[in-house]
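Narrative of accomplishments. A recurring question from our advisory board has been how the design workflow behaves on a single, concrete structure rather than in aggregate. To address it, we present the structure tokens for one chain from the evaluation set, followed by the sequence designed for it. No filtering or post-editing was applied between the two.
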């Protein structure tokens, strides 16, 4: 265990949520001298941190909502092979989120949000590398880039603004022809017409094992873990006195809320209303896929991420808005997986595992990071959407900055918890 890097006050911290964000935050707090307890109803890394596409890097500068996105939504919703799913019955519950999403899709807002995302993304490796090294997790990462594939010149041209945003923010990228992509990945078929290679993107061979290795390093450094479902707080004049769980209550000094989509309700109990939706994703891992990929790839026209992992090829897709507990639609996800044969003709999708889970998505595509507006002893660290893995370690550093009372490494105003009120 690396000796503590800062002389923090002798205080305890309870981190609610043992996904990748919570675990990385716990590690950085521990390095700063805090006594840290993680609390989660599940074992570490078993929610969205288990099911993500495994990518980590600096390329995801453009927000999810881009100019022109809303005009395409009606067609997306009626296309049974599109990854966007929004049942009509869920609109009354989510209309405010989509209203804000619409406002944040304007070009002027996109420019601001891209800058806010880049502030976090640009620190990805500097924040993760010490944790990987100390935990012995370096062999779980493959720094081989990510290939984004387009099936027509028109769809490639349609992505030009996103490419421009990345270039302006210093993202290393190389435009490739179909033949150049097939030299890199011989299993790609003629459907791959144009592509962009992002050399500064890595992928993990196992998102779950990565979180578990980091968690075990946390435990070996004196950390504690409570497998309990948090239900609320006992709040006194100076803020939360106890975290309440189904098993009882735990006295607290400092609390970090890093529970993904479940943070919304807990934040509400603490007086802060955060606009965040469960954007459900699906994946299938195929052990015998029939293809051999070196890089992670994204089939951009089909919204499918395809990542080689230690247990097979992981196919990930879908942005399904139906709440945390809505019924899963595996059939739609499997139909989308099968369309990936347009670029990987030898791909076999049969016999894969099934998984679905909720991404904590904000309408402006940036996370909630900062001190509670109502309780100085509570820090928020959630809402990372598709980028929980990528932003986890630097989020942990920023939360630790706040916990020890020093100025954060960057201006965290864009991520403030009360920006939706």
């Amino acid at each position: 265990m690396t000796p503590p890097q800062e002389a923090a006050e002798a205080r305890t911290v309870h981190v609610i949520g043992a996904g990748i964000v919570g675990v990385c935050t716990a590690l950085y707090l521990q390095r700063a001298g805090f006594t840290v307890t993680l609390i989660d109803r599940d074992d570490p890394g078993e929610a969205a941190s288990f099911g993500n596409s495994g990518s980590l890097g600096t390329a995801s500068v453009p927000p999810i909502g881009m100019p022109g996105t809303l005009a395409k939504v009606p067609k997306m919703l009626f296309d049974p092979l599109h990854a966007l799913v929004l049942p009509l019955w869920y609109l009354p519950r989510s209309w405010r989120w989509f209203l804000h999403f619409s406002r944040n899709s304007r070009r002027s807002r996109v420019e601001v949000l891209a800058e806010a995302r880049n502030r976090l993304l640009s620190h990805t490796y500097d924040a993760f590398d010490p944790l990987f090294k100390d935990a012995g997790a370096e062999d779980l990462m493959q720094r081989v880039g990510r290939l984004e594939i387009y099936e027509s010149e028109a769809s490639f041209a349609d992505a030009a603004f996103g490419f421009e945003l990345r270039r302006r923010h210093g993202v290393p990228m190389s435009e490739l022809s179909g033949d150049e992509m097939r030299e890199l990945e011989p299993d790609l078929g003629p459907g791959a017409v144009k592509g962009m290679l992002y050399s500064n993107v890595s992928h993990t061979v196992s998102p779950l094992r990565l979180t578990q290795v980091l968690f075990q390093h946390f435990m070996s450094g004196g950390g504690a873990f409570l497998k309990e479902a948090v239900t609320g707080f006992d709040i006194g004049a100076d803020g939360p006195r106890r975290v309440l769980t189904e098993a009882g209550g735990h006295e607290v000094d400092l609390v970090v809320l890093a529970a993904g989509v479940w943070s919304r309700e807990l934040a509400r109990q603490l007086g802060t209303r955060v606009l965040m939706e469960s954007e459900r994703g699906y994946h299938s891992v195929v052990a015998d896929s029939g293809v051999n990929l070196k890089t992670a790839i994204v089939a951009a026209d089909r919204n499918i991420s395809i990542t080689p992992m230690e247990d097979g090829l992981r196919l990930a897709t879908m942005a399904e808005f139906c709440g945390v507990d809505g019924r899963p639609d595996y059939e739609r996800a499997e139909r989308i997986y099968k369309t990936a044969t347009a670029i990987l003709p030898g791909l076999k999708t049969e016999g894969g595992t099934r998984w679905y889970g909720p991404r904590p998505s904000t309408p402006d595509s940036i996370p909630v990071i900062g001190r509670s507006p109502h309780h100085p002893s509570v820090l928020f660290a959630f809402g990372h959407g598709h980028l929980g893995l990528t932003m986890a370690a630097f989020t942990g550093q920023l939360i630790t900055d706040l916990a020890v009372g020093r100025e954060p490494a960057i201006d965290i105003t864009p991520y403030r918890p009360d920006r939706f009120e």
